[in-house]
Amino acid sequence: MKMLVSYSTLGYPDKDNYLKFVKGLVDSGSDILEIGLLPKYAKYDGPVIRRSYKEVSKWLKDVWSLLEETRRAVDVPLVILTYLEDWASSLPELLDRMKDIGIDGVLFPDLLIDYVDEYERYVKEIKSHGIKAVIFTSPSVPDPLIHKVSTLSDIFLYFGVRPTTGVPLPVGVDSLITRVRTLVKNKLVVGFGLSDVNDMVKALKAGADGVAIGTVYIEEIERNGVNSAISLAKKFRAILDGA
């Protein structure tokens, strides 16, 4: 079965609607939830995700208690998406806190970009705390490194098709994924800028084991509210089941 990995910014658009949204994502068939923590500087996020961070920054003070509520609300694996840059000096504390709450994994989008010389040490440290290390790669990562980290990544290898979320890509998704599929010895989840259903279907046909969706949910919440975004998740689940 193809995996639907659904993203939500922690606390977006407000507390009640956020909890309603994550529950709805799971009820609609999301296999894994990615929860984005408010970063100090969202250098690899696109404008839509950045807007969601801005909204949340107006009110969210206690990240940990909301993560605890999230954990109680859903029973699928939770993977935290946050920047290593924000936690490099306090990583053990972060990982212990996640473990205490029952968070399953962590994904640092900047790991192979800004910390590539030390990535193995960080991956080892993450795993030593009982947290799964989900590794993020992109077209800018050299092929031999994509191959190597695919064997280290837990749950799946995340391949972002664009340099930032929601930014158009000059190369066809299908040709990109066909090539990457040959390098990856793991489940391959594609995201970080799948712009439409057509992209999603192309990625699945080219060998992806799942898709990660985030920007389109937030755009839908902005336009039509949480219920409409939950309906989108149902639609994506149906596409995955038909692939």
Automatic annotation (TrEMBL):
The keyword Metal-binding does not apply. SUPFAM superfamilies: Ribulose-phoshate binding barrel. Keywords: Amino-acid biosynthesis, Aromatic amino acid biosynthesis, Lyase, Tryptophan biosynthesis. It catalyses: (1S,2R)-1-C-(indol-3-yl)glycerol 3-phosphate + L-serine = D-glyceraldehyde 3-phosphate + L-tryptophan + H2O. Pathway: Amino-acid biosynthesis; L-tryptophan biosynthesis; L-tryptophan from chorismate: step 5/5. Pfam families: Trp_syntA. Its EC number is 4.2.1.20. GO terms for molecular function: tryptophan synthase activity. PROSITE patterns: TRP_SYNTHASE_ALPHA. It comes from the Archaea. GO terms for cellular component: cytosol. The keyword Magnesium does not apply. Belongs to the TrpA family. NCBIfam families: PRK13125.1, trpA. Tetramer of two alpha and two beta chains. The alpha subunit is responsible for the aldol cleavage of indoleglycerol phosphate to indole and glyceraldehyde 3-phosphate. This is tryptophan synthase.
